[in-house]
């Protein structure tokens, strides 16, 4: 027997002697130190990654064409910061519209009322099926279709409030309508998936405890659905951050468009695009941390691989 | 306490309850036994209107469940009032159905706070008392995933008790448990029965039924075919189908 050889595979060495003394051998094996190949690979992998990063950084720093001076100069430029504020604001408000309307649409879609369910399906079909760029331009040009907008009795009845479309649909309103309504269609499907992931037994138990439908939804179903809803919603927020750059087509100066305006004059294209990327990366980093925090908050009670432990018999705790 | 008359229930064209008459007196413990698919769970779920019935009437605590008499006919109540009907009517499920995102104590506190408007402090105090009663005071802040099946079912019983019910429906409360955990749940149910709680229990634990039931009903194919004291139904069944069933499970 060659007990000293490591990682002996069956058949690769002398056949193990199982006829006698097997207890003794198990004891011998148990006494050997355990080596975990993965823990050795960890630092090696880290070293390779670090080397790679160092090479890239060195190449960029050495390259005079990158224009580090310009980058430093434009990073806190007034126009760039204004664009940054607009981009953040649009992302936040469009996502808020999308999430709230998305929850409503998801509840409609799951409703037993066929009219509500089909209305939601129709909405989702339309807004997911048309390019968001077209939707933005449509809202922006609404005045061409309906010069006056009014709230009142339809089919020729009196109007209570009315105004010119160009005054009501500002570029900001058009941007929020375009991005928010489109986002709602995607959020509706994410929320619906989350709601459906909650076990029917949870709803039954809550109903048997005399809770009403809104109470069951708010206290039992939504909190559990959040575990499924939050990760893809994080994706949507980060996607929206960059999608907002489409608003340049309706004359709004977001982060990217502000940079484009500047390099249109001074041709410092690469440094300005790097400035823009730095800001997008910074915002994405903040959002990712936010997502991590929210995910942790809603994963309470969920058995994860790390947290799962066997139930301890009562006596162990009482004693 | 429970008085059900001529209860009929269809799933599509399949008649699952075919005119069931079923009654439980105040403080009584009624055990429902019968083969799989005979409609035991359905009857239990009709008693608290988790399933609406198609014909007949169910009166619990003097109130028509899920319905009201308007003039010469019966109308189904709006969902809000059905929910109000269910106050005082607990239910314990085969698969426990504890709220997965809440700790044991929060599971027990949820309904009193949401439905009754009880303050958090009072609800917590009550929850700890109830968890102590089912032997789980030390587990108050564990999540369901950290509890064994028997412990989860005992929390579920505490959760039902938190709404101060005078009737609790049990749907095979021990069927999903490992054999060595059945005893702890039955012990809690035995204590409840002794304290005078009215209970309807769907069970396959014939020995337990014999021990605590004030009445046993044998259900087959959507009908209660035999009903009487535990001694009569379990030890001297007169219906051949009851006899065949008991022979198979004992
Ligand atoms: N939601 C439902 N939709 C359609 N059919 C159903 C539904 N629930 C129950 N049934 C049918 O009704 C019949 C009675 O079911 P039920 O669950 O009441 O039986 P049970 O006596 O509780 O059986 P078990 O001992 O297996 O739990 C079965 O044939 C079942 O398939
Ligand atoms: Mg059943």
Automatic annotation (TrEMBL), chain A:
Membrane-crossing residue ranges in chain numbering: 44-61, 89-110, 122-140, 160-182, 243-263, 269-290
Amino-acid biosynthesis as UniProt keyword: no
GO biological process, one term: amino acid transport
MF GO annotations: ATP binding; transmembrane transporter activity
InterPro entries: AA_ABC_transptr_permease_3TM (IPR010065), ArtM/GltK/GlnP/TcyL/YhdX-like (IPR043429), MetI-like (IPR000515), MetI-like_sf (IPR035906)
Composition-biased stretches (Basic and acidic residues): 1-10
Chief location of this protein within or outside the cell: membrane
A family per Pfam: BPD_transp_1
Protein name: Putative ABC transporter ATP-binding protein
From TrEMBL, chain B:
Ranges in a coiled coil: none
Catalytic activity: a polar amino acid(out) + ATP + H2O = a polar amino acid(in) + ADP + phosphate + H(+)
Chief localisation class: membrane
Membrane-topology descriptor: Peripheral membrane protein
Record EC number: 7.4.2.1
Signal peptide stretch: none
Protein transport in keyword set: no
Enzyme class: translocase
GO cellular component: plasma membrane
Subcellular location: Cell membrane
ABC transporter domain span: 2-246
Gene Ontology molecular function terms on file: ATP binding; ATP hydrolysis activity; ATPase-coupled polar amino acid-transporter activity
Keyword terms of this UniProt record: ATP-binding, Cell membrane, Membrane, Nucleotide-binding, Transport
Superkingdom of origin: Bacteria
Name the record gives this protein: ABC-type polar-amino-acid transporter
Lineage of origin: Bacteria, Bacillati, Actinomycetota, Actinomycetes, Frankiales
Gene: tcyC
């Amino acid at each position: 027997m060659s007990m000293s050889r490591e990682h002996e595979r069956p058949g690769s060495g002398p056949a193990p002697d199982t006829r006698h003394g097997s207890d003794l051998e198990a004891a011998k094996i148990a006494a050997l130190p355990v080596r975990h190949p993965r823990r050795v690979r960890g630092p090696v992998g880290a070293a390779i990654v670090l080397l790679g990063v160092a090479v890239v950084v060195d190449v960029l720093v050495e390259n005079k064409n990158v224009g580090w001076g310009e980058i430093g100069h434009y990073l806190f430029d007034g126009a760039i910061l204004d664009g940054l504020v607009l981009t953040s604001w649009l992302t936040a408000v469009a996502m808020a519209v999308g999430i709230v309307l998305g929850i409503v649409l998801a509840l409609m879609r799951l409703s037993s009322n066929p009219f509500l369910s089909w209305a939601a399906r129709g909405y989702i079909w339309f807004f997911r099926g048309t390019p968001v760029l077209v939707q933005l331009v449509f809202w922006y040009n609404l005045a061409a279709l309906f010069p006056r907008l009014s709230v009142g009795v339809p089919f020729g009845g009196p109007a209570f409030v009315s105004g010119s479309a160009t005054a009501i649909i500002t570029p900001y309103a058009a941007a929020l309508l375009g991005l928010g309504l489109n986002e709602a269609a995607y959020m509706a499907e994410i929320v619906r998936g989350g709601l459906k992931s909650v076990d029917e037994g949870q709803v039954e138990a809550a109903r048997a405890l005399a809770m009403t439908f809104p109470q069951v939804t708010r206290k039992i179903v939504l909190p559990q659905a959040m575990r499924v809803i939050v990760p893809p919603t994080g994706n949507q927020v980060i996607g929206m951050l960059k999608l907002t750059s489409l608003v340049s087509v309706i004359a709004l100066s977001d982060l990217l468009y502000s940079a484009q305006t500047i390099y249109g004059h001074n041709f410092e294209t690469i440094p300005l695009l790097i400035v823009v990327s730095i800001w997008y990366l910074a915002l994405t980093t903040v959002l990712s941390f936010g997502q991590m925090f929210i995910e942790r908050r809603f994963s309470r009670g969920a058995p994860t691989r790390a947290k799962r432990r066997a139930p301890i018999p009562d006596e162990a705790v009482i004693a | 306490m429970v008085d059900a008359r001529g209860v009929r229930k269809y799933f599509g064209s399949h008649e699952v309850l075919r005119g069931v008459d079923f009654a439980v007196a105040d403080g009584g413990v009624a055990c429902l036994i019968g083969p799989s698919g005979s409609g035991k769970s359905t009857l239990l779920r009709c008693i608290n209107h988790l399933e609406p019935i198609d014909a007949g009437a169910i009166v619990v605590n003097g109130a028509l469940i899920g319905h009201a008499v308007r003039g010469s006919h019966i109308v189904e109540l709006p969902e809000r009032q059905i929910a109000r009907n269910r106050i005082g009517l607990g239910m314990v499920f085969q698969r426990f159905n504890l709220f997965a995102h809440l700790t044991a104590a929060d599971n027990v506190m949820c309904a009193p706070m949401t439905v009754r408007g009880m303050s958090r402090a009072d609800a917590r105090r009550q929850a700890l008392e109830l968890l102590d009663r089912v032997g789980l005071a030390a587990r108050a802040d564990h999540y369901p995933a950290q509890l064994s099946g028997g412990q989860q079912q005992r929390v579920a019983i505490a959760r039902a008790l938190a709404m101060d019910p005078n009737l609790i429906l049990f749907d095979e409360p021990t069927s999903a448990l490992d054999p060595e955990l059945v005893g702890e749940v039955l012990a809690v149910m035995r204590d409840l029965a002794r304290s005078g709680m009215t209970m309807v229990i769907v069970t396959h634990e014939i020995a337990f039924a014999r021990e605590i039931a004030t009445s046993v009903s044998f259900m087959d194919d959507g009908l209660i075919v035999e009903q009487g004291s535990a001694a009569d139904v379990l030890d001297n069944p007169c219906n051949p189908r009851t006899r065949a069933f008991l022979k198979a499970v004992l």
